[in-house]
Amino acid sequence: MEKLHEDNEFTCDSKVKDDGDKQPSTSSNGKNNNVSDGDGALEKITKYLSEKLQLSTTDEDDDDKIEKSEEKILSELNIDGIVNYINEKKCKKIITMAGAGISTAAGIPDFRSPSSGLYHNLEKYNLPHPQAIFELDFFKKNPEPFFVLAKQLLPEGFKPTISHYFIRLLWEKGLLLRHYTQNVDTLERVAGLPNEKLVEAHGTFHTGKCLECQASYDLPWMKRKIVRGTIPKCEECLEGVVKPNIVFFGEMLPDRFHSLIEHDFIQADLLIIMGSSLVVQPFASLIDRVSFKCPRLLINKEKVGMQDRLLRLIGLRQGFDFDPKNRDIGRDVALIDDCDTGCQLLSQKLGWGEELKTLVENEHKRLDAEKL
Ligand SMILES: [Zn+2]
Fold this sequence. Notes:
Blueprint: E1 5-6, H1 41-53, H2 79-89, E2 94-98, H3 136-141, H4 144-153, H5 162-172, E3 176-181, H6 187-190, E4 198-200, E5 203-210, E6 216-218, H7 219-228, E7 242-246, H8 255-267, E8 270-274, E9 280-281, E10 296-300, H9 309-313, E11 332-336, H10 339-349, H11 353-371
Parallel strand pairs: 2-3, 2-8, 3-4, 8-10, 10-11
Antiparallel strand pairs: 1-9, 5-6, 5-7
Helix pairs in contact: 5-11, 10-11
Zinc ion binds at residues 210, 212-213, 215, 234, 236-237, 240.
Pfam families: SIR2
Organism: Microctonus hyperodae (Parasitoid wasp)
InterPro entries: DHS-like_NAD/FAD-binding_dom (IPR029035), NAD-dep_sirtuin_deacylases (IPR050134), Sirtuin (IPR003000), Sirtuin_cat_small_dom_sf (IPR026591), Sirtuin_class_I (IPR017328), Ssirtuin_cat_dom (IPR026590)
């Protein structure tokens, strides 16, 4: 079982930048493509790694025999190819995966990102590093900075985005196998996605528990304390701090995550990844759990999660391959845009444009009315 961590292994050219604008450790910016090609260094590294990892260095992949098949997986390596695939293959087991990018249009900042602005109020706490807020050991010693940050995330009135309702629409149409989210903002629940279709991989603010006696608390209870600026203390044992059930760095992901990924990904017939930079593990590596015939659509402001050339040479084909040269086996499509625009485009092309628009309008009206 793997704990929550940022993916900075196998980085070829530099450490993960610390400004929150993290790039995955792949060739996404093109820089890594320059790994000393001509001077034999690459061969040496490849040989070293393959010996260390006991991997085959042959070009033929033994274990991922992609049949250069009679039939292409996608008719075109673009959004139209995905739309044709959905219409023709009648897929019914779509998995969606989402990160902070689907919630930014709701006004929710990427709270794990030091560049989000949320950290400006925390300077007086002299954090060893910004991420310390999400480290359990630090929290146990000093929970205050976390709750100061949480207070900024809790104002009322965040409404789910077009992307959230697009996922709900997939469910209503009977096409959604499961939605995996990295977000803890509960907007999938607010959008009406049922519990059984939802995996909150990094936990949720929806519930919390006492770190001493494990007593459970709900969001309204925690919210009353946090908004007042007090640290929520357990009313059962009168000692423990009540921590929202979001997953901190170094903590295990929820059991539900581990049990469902085993069954879900292998049967998926389409994977849609939205608004995630795919740098936090083990979430990021889920994209490689689907079968080699399962198309993968990335809707994001930039290309992320791509195959590392070096790892590919030693037989590891993890990550996306958007290279049009691989058209005959191509199944990865990148729609480079913000998530809401991408979801609107996709639904229009599927003929669901009006339906999505009406759903968003009606639901937002309903949420506004509830607040009055
Ligand atoms: Zn307690």
